[in-house]
């Protein structure tokens, strides 16, 4: 994986990131990603939250056509819970981008992230679109600027790129912490490819891959009003890849972006992988893993480097999946601490002094398996989230 | 409500709390509550967790008869995830109490709380039963000792008592923080009454009342392996109350005990009541309120005294209940901050400087209403739960 390249890695894409003045800090806050074709196929996956921000409502509508010429993204405001006026702001943003690029507004997706409930400063935003359009470039630097402009409490921009031997590639950026379970206002991600694929193929690949990557990072169970993952294909490579090969490369890039989200989650001191095996189904394995991932007693014990398998057993038992305590086993960092209904080893044998924690929960009931990534619950998490409004 | 009296408030009951040496600290750790009759009707409500501690499995079995002569409780060890040997320990404990009191083991319920996965020191526990039996008394002091002996991270014993004008009364104690959602190893509660009621009447009243009290405190979504609420009736008053009257008094005592749990929850700096109105059903109102109560972004904002209604809207939207963002309203401490899809007032108008926070979420869809109590997520919560093994 190459983390120095992102959305401008695949050919046919230009990007820009500028300071539009939406953030009071003067930091970069507006990004533009443009697909120069020849293809314009696209797909999107959006938050399942019933309270959806204006840009999500707009982009969902736009993506019905499975075609995109551009994506405009801003940090500094989520444009959520802003009523019809907020929706008009999103619409006006798309119209502005369409006018500047000489495309249709229906070909422009919009993403926003930041505080909920406040209107966006539209004059700043509109001027920012002009500025970004003037700076559009296919360089790595332009891709990095775009990745930087969407950051909120992220400490660094997050990109990933992978080239396939057959002559096409996939690249992208992400901000936030976890599709369907972000720990801040929003998780946004834009992925590009120069493979020649139609919208249906992109949609199928994106849904399959997000279910196994973005959906399996769970920092605190939250699902934001704005979560969006977009996939754009320029077809500039002229190569139409085998669907399996494409999904594999897409999953590699998405997985790498998600790993970066985990490592930069608010207050993280432990990067935790929870693997559940032996569930009745894969969906039940995910259910158990997410219940453990979201359990504050488990998360605080991990922050304390305490291999407290009893709290894990408690969390497993309260999940909605089928569990039999007599078949349950729990291993932490390679040491089986609980098996066959008994303590199997002294908890002190599991070493949690490092940053990486590997928890394996065996249910002993079936073939369902899944891994969910999470973090611990630290003082820094409480500090960031009690002091920062998002 | 009288918080100076508890299980020995109603006539027909004796209690004791002793230091049996289960806790290394030498603190009180074994409690006995004995029903001297003439009636022995009883009812119990237990954890929904699929991983159930040995004492829960035992007491569920015993309560099928809806008769109890005694309850023995210990802190210092949960006796959960301890296999058949742990169950034998519980059985032996009941047999010991039965022998000392000259009753049947099937008339003795057992409750435990503390660390999961460790066997109990049975010699200490058995000697403790002898000691407690010798100290049994009907005094307020004896009831307080019993309430004290079940404490783990509780900072004070929690009792409540209410006498009914018709000559009967209800009293009880509780430890932990929240049936179905405790923030430590376990929530245990024993309630007594001298009303003359049979087991079926007690069971009906207890289920109805716990659903509206213990089940509506949600500190961190956890549901322990050991959660138990027991209700014992001596009939010593000779009065059989009207079922509605009895449920009302029982709910007053249970509600007061739950309020004390909330106030003593780990790391609490805010006592938060989340009321949801206008849900399609009462169950959906509970679902929405619990999703808000368990949301770490909401809880950390409250710790920061930030009336961040956007995070509340986010949590409401991700609940499994039906939500329409255009009908949603949110008020904090009496100030409506969001209504009709818009910001309704500046967040600064809601004053969160005090300890009590009152959140009202209006869904505008139906008649379902519920209130769930919770706390904020503070540095002290992280500290206690990362440093204390439970």
Automatic annotation (TrEMBL), chains A, B:
One Pfam family hit: ArgJ
Annotated site (Cleavage): 185-186
Q: Where does substrate bind?
A: 152, 175, 186, 266, 385, 390
Return the EC number: 2.3.1.35, 2.3.1.1
Has keyword Transport? no
What is the uppermost EC class here? transferase
Top-level taxon of the source organism: Bacteria
Spell out the residues of the site Involved in the stabilization of negative charge on the oxyanion by the formation of the oxyanion hole.
113-114
Subunit description: Heterotetramer of two alpha and two beta chains.
Give the HAMAP family listed for this entry: ArgJ
Please give the function described in this protein's UniProt entry.
Answer: Catalyzes two activities which are involved in the cyclic version of arginine biosynthesis: the synthesis of N-acetylglutamate from glutamate and acetyl-CoA as the acetyl donor, and of ornithine by transacetylation between N(2)-acetylornithine and glutamate.
Q: What is this protein called?
A: Arginine biosynthesis bifunctional protein ArgJ
Native organism: Saccharothrix yanglingensis
In the UniProt record, the gene name given for this protein reads: argJ
């Amino acid at each position: 994986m190459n983390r120095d390249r992102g959305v401008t890695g695949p050919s046919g894409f230009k990007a820009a990131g500028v300071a539009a003045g939406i953030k009071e800090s003067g930091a970069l806050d507006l990004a533009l990603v443009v697909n120069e074709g020849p293809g314009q196929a696209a797909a999107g996956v959006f938050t399942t939250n019933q309270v959806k921000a204006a840009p999500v409502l707009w982009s969902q509508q736009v993506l019905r056509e499975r075609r995109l010429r551009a994506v405009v993204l801003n940090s500094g405001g989520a444009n959520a819970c802003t009523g019809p006026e907020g929706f008009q702001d999103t619409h006006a943003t798309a119209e502005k981008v369409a006018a500047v690029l000489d495309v249709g507004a229906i070909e422009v997706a919009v993403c926003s992230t930041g505080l909920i409930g406040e209107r966006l400063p539209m004059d700043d935003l509109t001027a920012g679109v002009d500025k970004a359009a003037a700076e559009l470039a296919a360089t790595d630097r332009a891709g990095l600027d775009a990745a930087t402009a969407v950051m909120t409490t992220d400490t660094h921009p997050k990109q990933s790129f992978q080239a396939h031997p057959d002559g096409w590639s996939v690249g992208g950026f992400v901000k936030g912490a976890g599709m369907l379970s972000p720990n801040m206002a929003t998780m946004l991600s834009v992925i590009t490819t120069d493979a020649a694929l139609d919208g249906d193929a992109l949609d199928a690949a994106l849904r399959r891959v997000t279910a196994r990557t973005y959906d399996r990072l769970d920092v605190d169970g939250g699902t934001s009003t704005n979560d969006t993952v977009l996939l754009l294909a320029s077809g500039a490579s002229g190569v139409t890849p085998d669907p399996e090969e494409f999904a594999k490369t897409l999953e590699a890039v998405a997985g790498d972006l998600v790993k970066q989200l985990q490592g930069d989650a608010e207050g993280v001191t432990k990067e935790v992988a929870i693997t559940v095996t032996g569930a009745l189904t894969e969906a039940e394995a995910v259910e158990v893993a997410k219940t453990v991932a979201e359990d504050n007693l488990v998360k605080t014990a991990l922050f304390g480097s305490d291999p407290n398998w009893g709290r894990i057993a408690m969390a497993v038992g309260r999940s909605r999946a089928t569990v039999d305590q007599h078949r349950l086993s729990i291993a932490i960092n390679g040491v089986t601490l609980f098996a066959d209904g008994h303590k199997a080893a002294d908890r002190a044998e599991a070493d949690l002094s490092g940053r990486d924690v590997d928890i394996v929960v065996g249910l002993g009931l079936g073939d369902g398996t899944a891994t969910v990534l999470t973090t611990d619950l630290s003082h820094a998490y409480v500090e960031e989230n009690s002091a920062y409004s998002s």
